[in-house]
Amino acid sequence: MWTCPNCGRVFKRANQPHSCHRVPLEKHFENKEKAKELFEYLVKQIHTHIGSSQIISIPCCVHLFSNYDFLGAFPKKDRLEISFTLNRKIENPRIKKYASMSANVILNCLDVTDVEEIDEELMQWLGESFHLKDK
Q1: Which of 15, 67, 85, 90 measures 20 to 30 Å from 128, CA to CA?
Q2: What is the average pLDDT across 110-120?
Q3: Alpha carbon distance 40, 52 (integer Å)
């Protein structure tokens, strides 16, 4: 693991390309009250049921970091788009797209439009993602 001396973010490889620039968290949620409500509820559920994480607000999105960036949140006006990595593709209608990051890492993406969608199933996936690098 490598920690950037400028921004303090932790990466798998030394000198991994990234942006050290951070933006205030509130900037992501300007005029996006629904996304803010969903994000706050999601973070509370993760911290209560999975484990603590650090919120890292960078220009493109908001990351949740435990021992790696396990979740990306992209606030939209009427929803919160989230992406998380697993060692498998989730076959579920809730997942709107996938991206292979490597042979063993798949990025799974979905939209959350209501707090009720932050349910046991989603928390199970996020817990799996949270602990993926523990193995």
Answers
A1: 15
A2: 98
A3: 14
CB of 99 closer than 8 Å to CB of 85: no
Question: How buried is 91 (Cβ within 10 angstroms: 0-12 exposed, 13-18 middle, 19+ buried)?
Answer: exposed
Q: Which residues of 57-83 are buried (b: 16+ CB within 10 A; e: fewer)?
A: bbeebbbbebebbbbbbbbeeebbbbb
> What are the pLDDT digits (tens) for 33-52?
999 999 999 999 999 999 99
Rg over CA atoms, the chain: 15
Is residue 86 within 8 Å of 135, Cβ to Cβ? no
Which residues, in sequence order, are bridge partners of residue 127? none
Nearest to 80 by CA among 68, 89, 71: 71
pLDDT of 127 strictly over 60: yes
Q: List the structure tokens of 60.
A: 């493109």
Give tens-digit pLDDT for 8-31.
666 566 766 666 667 888 998 999
Q: Which pTM was predicted?
A: 0.85
